[in-house]
Amino acid sequence: MISTMFASDIIAPRPNAPVKHLITALGTSTQQKGNSFVSKIWGNSKEPRPVIYDDYKSVYADKQVDIVYVGTPHSLHRQNCLDAIAAGKHVLCEKPLTINAREAKEVIDAARAKGVALMEAVWTRFFPCVQELQKHLHEHKSIGDIRRAFIEYGAALPISSLGPESRLRDPALGAGALLDIGMYTLMYASVIMGQNLLGTEHPVPEVISAMSITDGIDESNVNVLTYADGTRERVAVCTSTLLSRGPKEFARIEGSEGSITLHTAKGPSCPTSFVLKRGGEETKFAFENPPGTAGFVFEADSFALDVLNGRLENQVMPLDETLRMMALMDGIRDQGGLKYPQDQ
Hints:
Blueprint: H1 2-11, E1 25-27, H2 31-42, E2 51-53, H3 57-61, E3 67-70, H4 74-86, E4 90-94, H5 101-114, E5 118-121, H6 128-139, E6 146-154, H7 177-193, E7 206-214, E8 217-229, E9 232-241, E10 249-255, E11 259-264, E12 271-278, E13 281-286, H8 297-308, H9 319-336
Parallel strand pairs: 1-2, 3-4, 4-5, 6-9
Antiparallel strand pairs: 6-10, 7-8, 8-9, 10-11, 11-12, 12-13
Helix pairs in contact: 4-5, 5-9
């Protein structure tokens, strides 16, 4: 699903796009699956169709490929990234970059040693809605001093009806609410409370966590992040669940001089607007994606421009931020008693 959305986005016609993307190769398990994928995505598009390989190594060896996009299940990210990096390719890898921080550090160290660009594809950070939200919170101080934030992400998935081999149920594949959708709530907490600081510069919160674990995966989790700020504490309450759909108004931020609510039409990973309330007045800020896209173009453009300009790390999603977030989720899983085979 995610690869379908990503590929559809970057071949969509955009007259004013800052960069032109060309999908030159596709790696899949069979030619039949590859043909079906290409027919579905390209349809009547005039964009050149990619060469279809029935393995991944041929993609890494293809001299026409500059960037490898990894859209496989979580558990495969580590090896996919390491193989692409070893071949000298730049890598844009879906979130989470890996299952845990130890694996993430291995991949990041490999990219830095090879001298190739690497970015975790946390697409939400690149949305204009999130970029403008950060300005209002930390530059314009539109609601004064931030006090509290509540962020929730709910997805109604048929977990109980799926087989144990499903990516959504198998712990070996990184199943569970935290890695799938909970990391978005933690991302928002970072955006709201982090003062625009990332990675090692981001303030370190105290974290209290609780998980509802069934058959080795977390179906729901609650995480309370407390940021000490002098004599005042700021708190972010983050919840995620795979058992029920969350509201369209998925987040509320309270400040000393007002509040902001975040809204979505499709899910918290795709924010579409926020409403600023201050002094009895209410202002709505709404944002639209380029026609025919879901919003993956923002991260794709940013990473492509990094590669074109010789930058090995992205300013919006630097590698130390990926490491910080992976370590944060490792700590949350430790508190909840959730272990994956990759943690051994």
